[in-house]
């Protein structure tokens, strides 16, 4: 039985003061984590204040990215070791914006997945699909190869803990959500790839999320799909009310 996972990715938005206020506003209003786990991924600048403000609230505090080395001469990078020390438990890895603007390759993403596990962080691995890929014949192999490459040398014990998000970049920030069938198809493909790599038992445990213009109007359709265990929302996670609507969706 997979526990639904509702996550927000704030990207490079809000301020430290706004982040803290957001956590104050949602405190006590989140679902029981036995029924739905909730998570916000934020800038590393905010994370320490957020962990402190969060206290024993069930909200999971995640980074949006981390580097693949623990420490060293890597100016400007975010250490996964320091994230763990700070009380952060999860990190997004391989978001399409990292792939597009920061040239992250599958190889870098795989190294980051290992760095996350080495530092006891749960990776939320994003799998992209551009519109040109969607329209081309190799789109299935593109999704399969991103998952396969991200998981190179990842053990079955580690693999069962990962969270994977299908986030077609043509649906991100565009207001154009994938239809529930398109979203299910992408998430199904990811689960099948994990089954091919690690077997059905592990594939059945891994949470697969959909992300791309999710809001409280389309969440119903998306979350009712068999292979979609939750959402990774950008814009709709920036306001406490709309995040709470998504977080509590399954309790209604
Ligand atoms: O990129 C996303 C989450 O990681 C999705 O962003 P939007 O929900 O704003 O489209």
Automatic annotation (TrEMBL):
- Offer one Pfam family short name for this entry: TIM
Does the record carry Cytoplasm as a key word? yes
List its EC numbers. Answer: 5.3.1.1
Any idea which UniProt keywords this protein has?
Cytoplasm, Gluconeogenesis, Glycolysis, Isomerase
Residues annotated for substrate binding in this entry = 9-11, 173, 213, 234-235
Main EC class of this protein?
A: isomerase
Compartments, as annotated in UniProt: Cytoplasm
Name its pathway.
Answer: Carbohydrate degradation; glycolysis; D-glyceraldehyde 3-phosphate from glycerone phosphate: step 1/1; Carbohydrate biosynthesis; gluconeogenesis
What highest taxon heads this organism's lineage? Bacteria
Could you give the subunit structure recorded for this chain? Homodimer.
* Family classification: Belongs to the triosephosphate isomerase family.
Supply the name of the protein. Triosephosphate isomerase
Q: Name the lineage.
A: Bacteria, Bacillati, Bacillota, Bacilli, Lactobacillales
Gene that codes for this? tpiA
